């Protein structure tokens, strides 16, 4: 009986660790040099697992591209991509002139997954990521492919989860974390990406 109990504790612990390991997904190309697919390694709530597996299965069958092409930096690609079931997966379009562009990614149900802005081929400006249910997950500012400026992350309920600032890709200044009920959970100070003690 003790052995079964210990095995159950071990299994539950490994499941919990596996789920927390997916928390910090980043849509950005960063050192990547290319436009990333925000669905790669994207974290969702456990209840979304079946929907995402079905989404991946259908997507692997075929991805339909549009005839219209768009160039963002050194990459030329279809302006629109579709899931195998014909629903829009990704779209890119220019703003004002060809030096500025926007890419939006969508879940298979049509809800937006992420929205990125580009300037001269690099991630620049306000970027947003969304939960599977279309609620805002995070918003951050970027400058030339690096996070630079304010960052906010939200619980699925809409309550603020974390806030702070980046300077050229590194955490800086005061960072605050909140419990889902809105109470302040922790405060940390950073300089050049290193937590100050």
Describe this structure in words.
By secondary structure, the protein is α+β, with helices and mostly antiparallel strands. Helix content is 16%, strand content 45%. The protein is built from 2 helices and 15 strands. The strands form 2 sheets. Strands 1, 4, 5, 6, 7, 8, 9, 10, 11, 12, 13, 14 and 15 form a 13-stranded antiparallel sheet that branches. It has a two-stranded antiparallel sheet with strand order 2-3. Strand 6 and strand 7 form a beta hairpin. The protein starts with a helix and ends with a strand.
From the alpha carbons, calculate the radius of gyration and give it in angstroms: 19 Å
Q: What average pLDDT do the residues reach? A: 74
Distance between the termini: 45 Å
| Helix/strand class | alpha+beta
**How many extended strands?**
15
Portion in beta strands: over 45%
Biggest beta sheet summary: 13 strands, antiparallel
Write the layout of secondary structure elements.
Layout: H1 2-20, H2 49-61, E1 64-65, E2 69-72, E3 75-78, E4 80-82, E5 88-95, E6 100-106, E7 112-119, E8 122-123, E9 125-130, E10 136-143, E11 146-154, E12 160-167, E13 170-178, E14 184-191, E15 194-196
Antiparallel strand pairs: 1-4, 2-3, 4-5, 5-6, 6-7, 7-8, 7-9, 9-10, 10-11, 11-12, 12-13, 13-14, 14-15
């Amino acid at each position: 009986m003790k052995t079964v109990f210990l095995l159950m504790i071990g299994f539950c612990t490994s499941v919990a660790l596996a789920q927390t390991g997916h928390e910090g997904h980043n849509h950005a190309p960063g050192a990547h040099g290319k436009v990333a697919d925000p669905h790669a390694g994207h974290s969702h709530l456990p209840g979304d697992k079946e929907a995402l597996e079905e989404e991946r299965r259908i997507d692997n069958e075929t991805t339909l591209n549009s005839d219209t092409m768009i160039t963002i930096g050194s990459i030329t690609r279809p302006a629109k991509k579709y899931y195998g079931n014909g629903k829009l997966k990704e779209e890119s379009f220019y703003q004002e002139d060809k030096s500025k562009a926007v890419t939006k990614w969508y879940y298979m149900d049509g809800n937006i997954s992420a929205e990125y802005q580009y300037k001269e081929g690099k991630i620049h400006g306000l970027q947003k990521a969304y939960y599977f249910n279309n609620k805002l997950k995070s918003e951050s500012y970027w400058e030339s492919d690096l996070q630079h400026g304010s960052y906010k992350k939200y619980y699925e309920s809409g309550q603020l989860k974390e806030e702070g600032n980046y300077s050229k890709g590194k955490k800086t200044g005061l960072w605050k974390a909140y419990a889902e009920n809105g109470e302040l959970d922790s405060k940390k100070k950073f300089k050049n990406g290193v937590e100050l003690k």
